[in-house]
């Protein structure tokens, strides 16, 4: 008779206690993480803009809502077009899908902190030869057996060296960078649509100007023809009047394809086919927003492309820790249990049970320098992202400086061109009266009319340039101003 040794309950639980002790140590050690902690790269920031006073430094605020910045142009139809872009543009949809992918990776990285629970059931049919060639078919058949298995397993990787935490940190930063890329692309597309719309409206104004000019030239041609019939003017005056009229009509026709191009571009930006979209002409051009005297630095710091570049640096820094964690062993705690039987009838029964529990420590001893190379690669990539971030910031300051200088120069030019336009209109009025009185020839009138029309079109072209530069400045500042800055609009310039 076999005598079973007397084992006390605490002795039976000793292996489990050791396992839990290992798990507790792993939890305590998991408070540390290899690799450098993130620190925002140093970036020399100017105390002020050369083109504007009042620039002050502030903390990054790219998460602040930018709002519907395009509403400062006071055009309800433009507001509707941009809202349509926000919901229907296919490029925005692509970037939004990319962000959802990055967000899913973050959820996956968080899931790695929890234990994995697996359930496996199987049926195996196996046979083993007897080793004798004279075995009968019946004896061979008797070697076939069925095995039924049901197993439940739990495993958990202890994040001792912070590999999982660094990976989560990298994925979160990448998701934030992806979200900033989405905002950057959306801002860029909004800027394109607003610029296209404003240029289209200036073309409408040019069209009205040329139509009015054609009417004037037609009256001048009729007057010149009457004077020719009366013997007051020569045939050359009629030819000059016809040339002037036809040239202006040709310019008017040329505007049609330019307007069609802008209309098609707006349609595509809104996710529509150009054939299904059209914009009716309006009677005015949106007002030019006045640039605030003081610009808070938060505006540039809200630029989504700068935010994306900085988040990329954060992700690259975390990946250095992931690469360095490969030098250290991985600790996995696992527990398995289930039932195994050769018959299905008593498969799930106490005598057929089995279980196992214990830690596993795995470490790479030699890899031919692969881990060292990976650390070098991640560190070099980090340096690359830092350089890209700093260049993005420099480019941002440059763009703001350029657009502010452009608007300042345009404003000065607008005043001079307005004076030139007033003088040209006055000269045209006086010259027309002199021609009607028969004091001068028609060639003098043609020259003055050409000068006046050129000044009219130059003023409209300058207005178009100022509107475009204002949109570009708003985009360069991250999209709009705060309400506290007190946006105002310039009054519309007087037109014929």
Automatic annotation (TrEMBL):
Residues 126-143 have a biased composition (Low complexity). Its main location: membrane. One of its GO terms (molecular function) is efflux transmembrane transporter activity. This is Efflux transporter, outer membrane factor (OMF) lipoprotein, NodT family. Residues 122-143 are annotated as: Disordered. Keywords: Cell outer membrane, Lipoprotein, Membrane, Palmitate, Signal, Transmembrane, Transmembrane beta strand. Residues 1-33 form the signal peptide. Belongs to the outer membrane factor (OMF) (TC 1.B.17) family. Coiled coil: none annotated. It is a lipid-anchor. InterPro entries: MdtP/NodT-like, OMP_efflux. It is found in: Cell outer membrane. It comes from the Bacteria. The keyword Lyase does not apply. GO terms for cellular component: cell outer membrane. Gene3D superfamilies: Outer membrane efflux proteins (OEP).
């Amino acid at each position: 008779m076999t005598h079973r040794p007397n084992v006390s309950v605490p002795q039976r639980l000793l292996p489990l206690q050791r396992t839990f002790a290992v798990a507790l140590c792993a939890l305590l050690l998991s408070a540390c993480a290899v690799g450098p902690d993130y620190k925002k790269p140093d970036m020399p920031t100017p105390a002020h803009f050369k083109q504007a006073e009042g620039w002050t430094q502030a903390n990054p605020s790219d998460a602040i809502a930018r709002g519907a910045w395009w509403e400062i142009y006071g055009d309800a139809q433009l507001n509707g077009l941009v809202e349509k872009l926000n919901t229907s543009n296919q490029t925005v949809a692509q970037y939004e899908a990319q962000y959802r992918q990055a967000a899913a990776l973050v959820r996956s990285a968080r899931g790695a902190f929890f234990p994995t629970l697996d359930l496996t059931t199987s049926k195996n049919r196996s046979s083993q030869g007897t080793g004798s060639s004279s075995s009968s078919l019946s004896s061979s058949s008797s070697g076939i057996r069925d095995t039924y298995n049901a197993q439940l397993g739990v495993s958990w990787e202890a994040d001792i060296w912070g590999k999982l935490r660094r990976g989560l940190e990298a994925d979160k930063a990448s998701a934030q960078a992806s979200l900033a890329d989405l905002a950057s692309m959306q801002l860029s597309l909004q800027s394109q649509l607003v610029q296209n719309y404003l240029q289209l409206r200036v073309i409408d104004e040019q069209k009205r100007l040329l139509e009015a000019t054609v009417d004037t030239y037609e009256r001048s041609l009729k007057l010149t023809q009457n004077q020719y019939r009366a013997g007051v003017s020569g045939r050359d005056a009629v030819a000059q009047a016809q040339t002037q009229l036809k040239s202006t009509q040709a310019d008017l026709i040329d505007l049609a394809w330019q307007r069609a191009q802008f209309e098609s571009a707006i349609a595509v930006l809104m996710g529509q086919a150009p054939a299904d979209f059209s914009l009716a002409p309006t009677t005015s051009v949106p007002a030019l927003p006045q640039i605030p005297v003081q610009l808070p630095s938060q505006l540039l710091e809200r630029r989504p492309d700068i935010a994306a570049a900085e988040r990329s640096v954060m992700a690259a820094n975390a990946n250095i820790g992931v690469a360095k964690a490969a030098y250290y062993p991985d600790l996995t705690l696992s527990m398995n249990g289930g039932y195994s039987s050769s018959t299905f009838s008593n498969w799930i029964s106490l005598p057929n049970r089995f279980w196992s529990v214990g830690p596993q420590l795995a470490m790479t001893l030699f890899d031919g320098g692969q881990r060292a190379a990976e650390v070098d690669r991640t560190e070099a990539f980090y340096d690359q992202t830092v350089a890209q971030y700093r260049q993005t910031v420099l480019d941002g300051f440059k763009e703001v400086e350029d657009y502010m200088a452009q608007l300042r120069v345009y404003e000065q030019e607008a005043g001079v061109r307005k004076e030139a336009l007033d003088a040209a209109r006055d000269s045209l009025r006086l010259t027309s009266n002199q021609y009607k009185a028969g004091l001068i020839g028609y060639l003098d009138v043609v020259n003055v009319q050409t000068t006046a029309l050129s000044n009219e079109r130059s003023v409209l072209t300058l207005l178009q340039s100022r509107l475009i530069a204002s949109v570009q400045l708003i985009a360069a500042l991250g999209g709009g101003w705060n309400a506290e800055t007190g946006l105002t609009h310039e009054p519309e310039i007087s037109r014929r």
